């Protein structure tokens, strides 16, 4: 028995397990998506691409799709920008550095549903902290303009710490000598940041982007708790729409088609980033 | 030290094993019924007592009541996943009033018609009976009932010499008059977030104007009556401004808080809020009145029916025992106990004339007329799909994205599409 063969044998249980809990469900969803399947009416018939064709002219799907894109774009870019600023600041030496780092993490440590409930009260028109501080009466979650942006703000508040932690880790492995050398050559703060910090941080930034884009694209709990998709579906994301179709109206075929689309989109996003990442590595 | 610990461990292990065998032996003679339901309000001991009474009256049956997550969406999901998988893990289930049709159509519930003859059936309020009857057969038994109410501030109405409004127009003029003279007071608040409660609210305006969603199997949701009713709701926010814009995000609890802090004159809500207002220390204690919701024409008031029904899992292995439990829990006697100790509103009409109940819970006894007029949401196995169409369309009309006519026309087309699935 060569070393390689015995290795395969050890890996088998894990591979089988993964097969049953990830590969099999993925293919089952794909299989379901080719069916018209209504649980309560005991209807299950093979319709091939009919669900997907319906999807293409389903206004609610396109609305959810553009909401999801907007959410992803806004929240990820804000999180990256803020996260980068905070990480660079935290990387300096100052008093109570450890404590501040811990405090920054708090929003990330709170379960999403809990923080969404918290923000629901913060956004409350009458009792909300935000309106109290601003001295205004804005109907944050009820206005078609503000609702989505309010959800984005909550997500930024919650996930920026995650970005900060990853970026801080990336900053710490940049050799100090490079900074010293740059300083001796007379480089200013901005030049140091642009020519040393940013290029060396690039791999970490890409990892952050992958994680955050995928998470944001599948966003469910934060928005669902805050607005339930309202008002008038202006905050309905793809995951929320899929959830409603699957578990509230029990249309398993169409719901699966929606899920497959989410899956394909996230797969494309991952491939895109991985391509950039591998190019950077070369 | 280590020795002691290991001895203790051994002992506890023995104990556990002994416990197991006891239970196994018991299981041979005792039928264990599993009863799934949402959390029972208030002190859990009171409901446990009721279950113990059942067990002592029915030796040989033991009931394990298992509580489901608080959100009704999650409960629905739990039932669907398990019943679709033909699970026999639970025998009796409590269902929201809008699920019975769907579950009955799916064939997940036992027909319980034969438990009740004609007279027994008419002992229950008509609304819930309609909701549990699918193609002529009963698939669940109404357990307790709920309906939309109008809460008002007695003291303020008296101060300005108004009586509680019977029509929506009266409500608007009364509220308009009073809020222009009081500081920090909203006129009328209700639930307008995009969720199931919004549908409950809107239907009350439809019915109060003679409209409806389905007429036999025709979709009549975009009737002129309904367009007017939905437009009226939008006008409450933007034209007469007796309703603050915040209702478009409000569910029950925020509105209850606002009213409970004395910051609103009128509120539409379910009966549960009453006990909270009458608690000691409540700013509105003794100042709150309740009544039928207004309507557009006098005497057309209608509330949306809520409440829970008990049914039997089709795959249950103990249907006879389950029937006994349902009979017991929906009996006049137990409903009375539950009304007195927990505050749940009986689904049997006769109890509202009960002397004890009238004395101990005068508020519940006074709800008889409201419950008689309570109407179920469209009784259809397709309801869960229909509501997914109505929620965003109603929300769009209230937030001004669409005109009421456009929203309702679009809703009609979508509902027709859904109903077209079977016909």
Care to describe what's here?
The complex is a heterodimer of chains A (282) and B (423). Chain A contains twelve helices and two strands, in the order αββααααααααααα. Chain A has helices spanning 3-33, 50-56, 59-90, 97-109, 112-122, 129-134, 146-172, 176-184, 189-217, 221-227, 238-248, 252-281, and strands at 35-38, 43-46. In chain A, strand 1 (35-38) and strand 2 form a beta hairpin. In chain A, 76% of the residues lie in helices and 3% in strands. In chain A, helix 4 (97-109) crosses helix 7 (146-172). With 423 residues, chain B is α/β, with parallel strands linked by helices. Helix content of chain B is 48%, strand content 15%. Chain B has 19 helices and 14 strands. Chain B has helices spanning 2-29, 44-57, 72-84, 100-106, 118-122, 126-132, 154-159, 168-179, 196-207, 224-238, 252-260, 273-277, 319-329, 332-341, 355-360, 362-365, 368-372, 383-398, 404-419; strands at 31-37, 61-67, 92-96, 133-134, 137-138, 141-147, 149-153, 186-189, 214-215, 218-219, 264-269, 288-291, 303-312, 374-375. In chain B, strands 1, 2, 3, 6, 13 and 14 form a six-stranded mixed sheet that branches. A four-stranded mixed sheet of chain B has the order 8-11-7-12, with helices on both faces. Chain B has a two-stranded antiparallel sheet with strand order 4-5. The longest helix of chain B has 28 residues, at 2-29. The interface between A and B is large, with 33 and 39 residues.
């Amino acid at each position: 028995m060569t070393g390689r063969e015995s290795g395969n044998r050890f890996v088998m249980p894990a591979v089988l397990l993964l097969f049953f809990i990830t590969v099999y469900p993925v293919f089952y969803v794909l299989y379901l998506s080719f069916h018209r399947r209504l649980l309560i009416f005991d209807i299950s018939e093979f319709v091939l691409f009919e669900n997907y064709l319906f999807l293409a002219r389903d206004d609610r799907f396109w609305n959810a799709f553009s909401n999801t894109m907007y959410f992803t774009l806004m929240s990820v870019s804000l999180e990256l920008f803020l996260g980068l600023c905070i990480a660079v600041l935290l990387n300096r030496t100052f008093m109570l550095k450890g404590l501040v780092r811990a405090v920054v993490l708090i929003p990330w440590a709170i379960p999403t549903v809990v923080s969404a409930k918290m923000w629901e009260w913060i956004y409350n028109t009458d009792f909300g902290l935000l309106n109290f501080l601003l001295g205004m009466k804005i109907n944050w979650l009820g206005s078609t303009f503000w609702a989505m942006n309010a959800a984005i703000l909550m997500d930024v508040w919650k996930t920026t710490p995650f970005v900060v932690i990853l970026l801080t880790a990336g900053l710490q492995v940049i050799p100090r000598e490079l900074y010293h050398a740059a300083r001796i050559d007379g480089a200013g703060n901005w030049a140091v940041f642009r020519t040393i910090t940013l290029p060396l941080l690039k791999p970490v930034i890409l990892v952050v982007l992958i994680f955050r884009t995928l998470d944001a694209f599948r966003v469910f709990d934060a928005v669902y708790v805050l607005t339930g998709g309202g008002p008038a579906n202006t905050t309905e994301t793809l995951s929320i729409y899929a959830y409603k179709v699957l578990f509230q109206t029990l249309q398993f075929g169409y719901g699966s088609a929606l899920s497959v689309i989410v899956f394909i989109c996230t797969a494309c996003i991952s491939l895109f980033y991985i391509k950039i990442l591998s190019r950077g590595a070369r | 030290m280590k020795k002691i610990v290991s001895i203790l461990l051994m002992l506890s292990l023995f104990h556990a094993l002994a416990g197991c065998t006891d239970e196994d032996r018991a299981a041979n003679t005792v039928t264990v019924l599993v009863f799934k339901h949402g959390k029972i309000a208030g002190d859990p001991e009171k409901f446990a007592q009721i279950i113990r009474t059942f067990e002592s009256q029915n030796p040989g049956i033991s009931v394990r009541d298992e509580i489901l997550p608080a959100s009704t969406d999650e409960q629905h999901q739990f039932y669907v996943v398990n019943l679709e998988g033909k699970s026999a893990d639970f025998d009796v289930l409590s269902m929201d009033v809008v699920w019975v049709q769907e579950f009955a159509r799916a064939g997940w519930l036992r027909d319980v018609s034969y438990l009740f003859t004609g007279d027994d059936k008419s002992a229950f309020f008509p609304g819930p009976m309609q909701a549990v009857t699918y193609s002529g057969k009963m698939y669940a038994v109404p357990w307790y009932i709920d309906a939309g109410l109008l809460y008002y501030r007695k003291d303020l109405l008296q101060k300005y010499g108004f009586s509680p409004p019977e029509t929506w127009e009266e409500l608007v003029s009364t509220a308009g008059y009073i809020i222009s003279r009081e500081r920090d007071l909203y006129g009328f608040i209700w639930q307008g977030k995009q969720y199931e409660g919004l549908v409950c609210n809107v239907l009350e305006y439809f019915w109060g104007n003679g409209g409806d969603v389905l007429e036999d199997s025709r979709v009549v949701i975009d009737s002129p009556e309904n367009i007017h009713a939905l437009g009226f709701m939008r006008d409450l926010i933007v034209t007469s401004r007796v309703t603050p814009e915040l209702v478009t995000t409000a569910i029950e609890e925020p509105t209850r808080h606002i009213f409970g802090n004395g910051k609103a004159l009128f509120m539409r809500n379910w009966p549960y809020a009453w006990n909270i207002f009458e608690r000691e220390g409540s700013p509105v204690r003794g100042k709150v009145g309740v009544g039928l919701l207004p309507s557009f024409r006098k005497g057309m008031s209608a509330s949306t029916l809520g409440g829970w029904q008990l049914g039997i899992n089709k795959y249950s292995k103990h249907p006879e025992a389950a029937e006994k439990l349902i009979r017991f829990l929906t009996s006049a006697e137990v409903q009375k106990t539950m009304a007195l100790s927990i505050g749940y509103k009986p689904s049997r009409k006769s109890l509202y004339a009960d002397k004890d109940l009238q004395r101990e819970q005068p508020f519940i006894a006074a709800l008889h007329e409201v419950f008689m007029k309570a109407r179920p949401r469209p009784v259809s196995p397709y309801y869960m799909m229909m509501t997914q169409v109505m929620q965003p369309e109603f929300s769009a009309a209230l937030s001004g994205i669409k005109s009421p006519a456009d929203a309702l026309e679009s809703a009609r087309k979508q509902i027709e599409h859904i109903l077209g699935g079977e016909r």
